[in-house]
Specification:
The chain starts with a strand and ends with a helix. It is α/β, with parallel strands linked by helices. Helix content is 42%, strand content 11%.
């Protein structure tokens, strides 16, 4: 059987931590007197913590000193880490666990490619860290998606080329990063938002039977 590198984003693909990010950013914005709604939160998906705070300050037309900026970033991360303590195996998104187990059974290499600096503790909470051969997260890369650095790093660690890699993403920036690298991009979410992906599914449970075998024979469009 042929092999490909299977690379997964974390937030919105394996687990929905977006709700925790939203609560933490909303609390931070409120502490600065800035109104922060789900509409603004959507624009922070796949964006680094530094750039997210910059955006929030722009929206609120506020300026803060570098020292306070760092304090606020630390505060947001502490709140977020406190919120994710409640995560367990039941928080894995539908169909993901079975998909990962099937990849393992078929001997396919699996990597995580996420901007999150908390990827490892989250995977441990979910009880699936051992299913990943390689974990590349926000501590390993300097360029944010749509730059493909995180995915290229992951496939290099697995010993595969970009053309033999498949990426699962829920954000436009992530899909664009996979496409830029020349990898097969599978979008998880809404077709009208992720239309740049090679294929889009609402959940892993919506994928056809034997979809892994289809992907192994699939060529980049």
């Amino acid at each position: 059987m042929s092999k490909k590198a299977f690379i997964f984003d974390l937030d919105g693909v394996i687990v929905d931590t977006a709700k925790f990010h939203f609560i933490a950013w909303q609390r931070l914005a409120a502490s600065l007197g800035i109104n922060f709604t789900e509409k603004e939160n959507e624009q922070l998906k796949g964006v680094s913590r530094v750039n997210s705070l910059k955006k929030i300050l722009e929206w609120g037309n506020k300026e803060i000193s570098p020292a306070i900026f760092q304090t606020k970033m630390d505060q947001k991360n502490e709140e977020y880490l406190e919120l994710i303590k409640t995560l367990d195996v039941n928080d894995i998104l539908p169909g993901v666990h079975d998909f990962l187990l099937e990849l393992k059974e078929l001997g396919q290499p699996i990597a995580l490619g996420s901007a999150s600096k908390n990827a490892r503790p989250i995977l441990e909470k979910l009880g699936i860290k051992d299913l990943f051969d390689v974990i590349v997260d926000g501590t390993d890369v300097t360029k944010a998606k749509p730059d493909p650095e995180v995915f290229l790093n992951a496939c290099n660690h697995l010993g595969y080329t970009a053309i033999d890699s498949v990426v699962f993403e829920d954000s436009v920036a992530g899909v664009q990063a996979a496409n830029t690298a020349g990898m097969i991009s599978i979008g998880l979410g809404e077709q009208d938002i992720l239309h740049e992906a090679d294929e889009v599914f609402t959940h892993f449970t919506n994928m056809p039977q034997d979809y892994i075998k289809t992907l192994l024979n699939k060529k980049k469009q």
